[in-house]
Write a structure and sequence with these properties.
CATH architecture: 3-Layer(aba) Sandwich
Structural class: alpha/beta
Bound molecules: adenosine-5'-diphosphate, magnesium ion
Shape: globular
CATH class: Alpha Beta
Number of strands: 10
Number of helices: 10
Largest sheet: 6 strands, mixed
Helix content: 25-40%
């Protein structure tokens, strides 16, 4: 697992939205992601998490401007890639093959008029030219299996899938080219708790199996405490604390971290001390409820969302 060998090093990242007045959304952030680790990025809505993610993956568009910073990707072959200097094709390759992203609200961004299969094929056709149709079908089926979706659903359209299923498909797409790292921006926020659990379990299992690193973004600190190796706490564009999950939980250093922890009553025991449900966390409780139950629960969510 985490071998303390970096896969991505970002230094002094600053992003301003050039509006009037300008918004300094990210201010001098340093961040190192180790191979195979899950790094949680926590902080209130509007603190700059998505902006930072976009800066790491070169997705910023005007009025956002990267005013300072460097991003280095340490490729598994040993080469260091200066992400800020990548041009067109190399940048496209970087985004899918090395560092893929699951966007906030991604499950609603599947193309409604083409099948899941066609969308997976698009990725494979672009990045694996020469792959036979048979191989693409097998790969697409394998990817769905990987994320716990019945491969029969390949021919489905987005509206035929529950929210949880759609989000799993988005994760399958992000995994399609076997990236060394993924950035997941609130990947389960819109889902109800049961579905969320199922997906988190899947992510943790896949991480074990495929050994990619994850930057997992959410405002849900209790969730991060369960799944992350380390957690970065972000506030007003800055990372105010970065430590192992255990230390963030047991020995928070920054006043804001303490405040954030105490804002989740579920973490407080009778005595007012923090209590972490260590059990086996996301991998433990209800481990058998993946599958049918989940799609049921997801359908309920969908209904509630409408
Ligand atoms: N297009 C934009 N123009 C101006 N300000 C923006 C834009 N997008 C985001 N911001 C501002 O940047 C800050 C960080 O936003 P964001 O990165 O989306 O935060 P988070 O993901 O933590 O909720 C917020 O103050 C937000 O209002
Ligand atoms: Mg966001």
């Amino acid at each position: 697992m985490a071998e303390h060998e970096p896969v991505l090093t970002a230094m002094n990242m600053s992003v301003t939205y050039e509006v009037n007045p300008p918004v300094r959304a990210v201010k001098g952030v340093d961040l190192v992601l180790n191979r195979g680790e899950i790094l949680g990025l926590a902080g209130e809505s509007g603190c700059g998490k998505t902006t930072l993610a976009y800066a790491l993956n070169r997705l910023l568009k005007p009025p956002a401007l990267l005013t300072s910073g460097s991003v280095t990707f340490h490729d598994k072959g040993g080469a260091d890639i200066d992400v800020t200097k990548l041009q067109k094709n190399d940048l496209r390759e970087f985004r899918w093959e090395k560092c893929s992203m699951v966007f906030q609200g991604a499950m609603n961004s599947l193309n409604p008029v083409i099948s899941i299969r066609a969308q997976l094929f698009d990725v494979l056709k672009t990045h694996r030219p020469g792959m036979s149709k048979k191989a693409m079908t097998e790969t697409a089926q394998g990817l769905l299996k990987l994320v716990g979706v019945d491969p029969e659903r390949l021919t489905a359209f987005a509206h035929e899938l529950s929210g949880g299923m759609r989000q799993r498909v988005m994760i399958a797409m992000a995994l399609a080219l076997n990236p060394q790292m993924m950035i997941m921006d609130e990947p389960t926020t819109a889902l109800d708790v049961v579905v969320q659990r199922g997906i988190l379990r899947e992510i943790m299992r896949l991480r074990e199996q495929l050994n990619f690193a994850v930057i997992f973004i959410t405002h849900d600190l209790p969730l991060l405490l369960e799944i992350s190796d380390r957690i970065a706490i972000m506030r007003s564009g800055e990372i105010v604390e970065l430590n192992t999950s255990k230390n963030v939980f047991e020995n928070p250093q920054h006043e804001y971290t303490k405040q954030l922890l105490s804002s989740f009553p579920s973490l407080l025991g009778d005595e007012g001390a923090f209590v972490r449900d260590t059990g086996q966390g996301a991998a433990g409780e209800g481990a058998e409820d993946v599958g049918a139950d989940e799609s049921d629960a997801a359908l309920h969510t969908d209904r509630a969302e409408r």
